[in-house]
Amino acid sequence: MFEPVTIKDIAKALGLSTSTVSRALRDTHEISAATKKVVLEYAKEIGYQPNPIALSLKERRSKSIGVVVSEVANSYFSQAINGIESIAYDRGYHVIISQTHESFEREVSNVQHLASRSVDGLLVSLSSQTTDISHLTHLHDRGLPIVFFDRVADEIDTHKVIANNQQGAFDATEHLIKSGFKRIAHLTSSSHLSISIERLAGYEAALKAHNIKPNPAYVKFCPHGGMLYEETETAIKELLALPEKPDAIFVAGDRLSTGCLSVFKNLNVAVPKDMAIAGFSNSDVLDLFNPSITSIRQPAFEIGQLATQMLLQLIEAKYPVVEFEKKILETDLFIRN
Amino acid sequence: MFEPVTIKDIAKALGLSTSTVSRALRDTHEISAATKKVVLEYAKEIGYQPNPIALSLKERRSKSIGVVVSEVANSYFSQAINGIESIAYDRGYHVIISQTHESFEREVSNVQHLASRSVDGLLVSLSSQTTDISHLTHLHDRGLPIVFFDRVADEIDTHKVIANNQQGAFDATEHLIKSGFKRIAHLTSSSHLSISIERLAGYEAALKAHNIKPNPAYVKFCPHGGMLYEETETAIKELLALPEKPDAIFVAGDRLSTGCLSVFKNLNVAVPKDMAIAGFSNSDVLDLFNPSITSIRQPAFEIGQLATQMLLQLIEAKYPVVEFEKKILETDLFIRN
DNA sequence: TTGTAAGCGTTATCAT
DNA sequence: ATGATAACGCTTACAA
Q1: Which of A157, A182, B133, B144: CA 20 to 30 A from A19?
Q2: Are residues B186 and B292 both part of a single domain?
């Protein structure tokens, strides 16, 4: 069962050497048109398929790239994966996806798994638990091309693709301010993620630009190590229990935004009558949500595409690239009526 | 840059033969404890990592499985992928995901791509455009293990895992009937998909059980070949233009359910004041949607897990499996207040 | 217990 | 234009 045809089989059947067959199959000019024709026809007839594994062993590359994200079931990442796949597929690369579920251990394990399976490069968005990135520096130092997207590590010198999180956060916060809200809270994820830092900066900049004094009690971190909902609920309850209850929340993340809405729904607190919400989210289902929530859309598809292009460039570069680029793509403030 | 350590390097450094090193590394008994110790220590020291490609070439397997779905950005599939990944990861298999975007051509191309990259087996959910499955039968005949999930092909004799679509559809339709709706339309995808056929059957059975005469004009197919929204919009407009306008819709699909809600939102038709909707959907964001929509949840995660278990069983079976199982998992009717 | 050699499928190098 | 051979990294008879 499933005995694949090899070059050797063709050679034997046609009374040729394997090298001749190989040449015929690969269209070199050092072959007679006649032989080539015979080989190609016979190959087609018996359904010859080249064995990519043999090729990989020979050429020391696998024509596959590894992707490390926290969750596939997250609209931002699933859209980014679409972008990654669209480029990879066109260029003949396979995409191997792995999920960290926001766990550091799982990230280390996945990265090692992928590296040991000889992917030609890695597309990484860090888990929210990750602070130590030596599992990646190690591989990067050994020459494995790595491109970060979304949640990047500044410690590694390589290409990075992110959204303009700071500007997006600024715009969203400013939108809340201009809509008349004064006490704007900020719900965000793990404090050491690059996206959290950038978004917090944008939020603070907007407050400052409008002369609103920042209130530390208004900023809540949800590191989400598997209990996102509970963390979100606690944070929101704490916000609602404050003497000066916030009148709006700027939420920094896809899952966090929907999680936040769930909490409000379960608490039976009307939104936005009592409170306005603006959050980073790429879910188009959110458009259907009636009490308006303003969302900051990231160009997820384009980020995935660009990161992949950069990675393939690194992989296929003959000489090491000297200049590493940090590409920042603009976000889109999606305001519902 | 990135010159991986091989068994040969270790052998040379330690003055041993490659076979001895190989044996030490792989824990056979035909090796002295002393040699083993030396080899293991040195291997660890210089960071030896076995080359899985060489192994694949030797053992004629790649320890990777291919997954063919229509879209990753679909809550049903992203949850199923979670299930697939959870099992595959535990068993040391890689998961290579490819998307058809509901295109037959893309499906053929992806399947060939995966097969030629020597995956050890395939997990397939057919595209909505697919009627001819010879690209799969061909591979299956040659011995490639294939397990279908969700959208299955009855023409191929292999394991299949599906949700109880007929029962789910029956329950949802009956729920609408019991809620007092009489003129229940059915919005579904391509008419030749197994899920469409099963769901249509459940819908018709529920009508019959409650002595409601089926109205052919109430059944709308959306083959969605890339223009899902437009197709959905047309279908709904046609339904609304009927002399006897339906008062409820049973929708058969994740994307279709949210698409349907979008259309209503854009048409400014209140839901469910004018019309009730019940649909297959696994999106938890839908829970937030206020005008209630009843959703039929599929055990996507479990379906993914089960399909993967079956596939790995096929892959690792020494002797061909004779009995092929069609597993049917129950759905869950999720009724919102 | 250890070494030698062949083989997995392919291509590149050198002969012829 | 074609063939023989070695090599990619690893495992496994078979020999020693």
Answers
A1: B144
A2: yes
pLDDT of A228 reads: 81
* Chain A, chain B: beta-carbon pairs less than 8 Å apart: 131
| A172 plus A293 within the same structural domain | yes
d(Cα B147, Cα B312) in Å, to the nearest integer? 10
For residue A293, is pLDDT > 60? Answer: yes
Same domain, A265 and A277: yes
Which pLDDT belongs to residue A152? Answer: 97
- Residue A142 sits in the same domain as residue A81: yes
In a domain, A336, yes or no: no
pLDDT in tens, B80-107: 999 999 999 899 898 998 999 999 999 9
Bridge partner list, A186: A219, A250
Which of A142, A147, A134 is CA-nearest to residue B1? A142
Give the total number of structural domains in chain A.
3
B158-165 average pLDDT score = 98
Q: Is the pLDDT of residue B258 over 90?
A: no
pLDDT in tens, B3-23: 789 999 999 999 999 999 999
pTM: 0.91
Please indicate, yes or no, if residue B234 is contained in any of the structural domains: yes
- pLDDT higher than threshold 90 for residue B300: yes
Q: What DSSP string describes B161-226? A: EEE-HHHHHHHHHHHHHHTT---EEEEEE-TTSHHHHHHHHHHHHHHHHTTPPP-GGGEEEE--SS
Rounded to whole angstroms, the distance from the CA of residue A88 to the C1' of nucleotide D2 is: 37
CA(A145)–C1'(D11) in Å? 30
> Residue A62 CB closer than 7 angstroms to strand D?
no
Residue type, A147: V
- Same-domain check for residues B214 and B282: yes
A62-76, B152-166, B213-227 — which is least confidently predicted?
B213-227
**Confidence at residue B317, expressed as pLDDT on a 0 to 100 scale:** 87
Q: Which two tokens stand for residue A233?
A: 């609920």
Strand partners, B2: none
**A55 is a domain residue:** no
Residue A18's domain spans which residues? 7-50
Q: Is residue A2 part of a domain?
A: no
Q: Which residues touch strand C (CB under 7 A)?
A: A 4, 6-8, 18-19, 22, 25-26, 49-51, 54-55, 57-58; B 15-20, 23, 29-32, 34-36, 54, 57-58, 60
Instruction: Read off the CATH number of the domain in which B286 is found.
Output: 3.40.50.2300
Å: A16 CA to D1 C1': 12
**Chain A residues with beta carbon closer than 8 angstroms to that of B50:** 116
Chain B stretch 178-237, residues whose beta carbon is closer than 8 A to a beta carbon of chain A = none
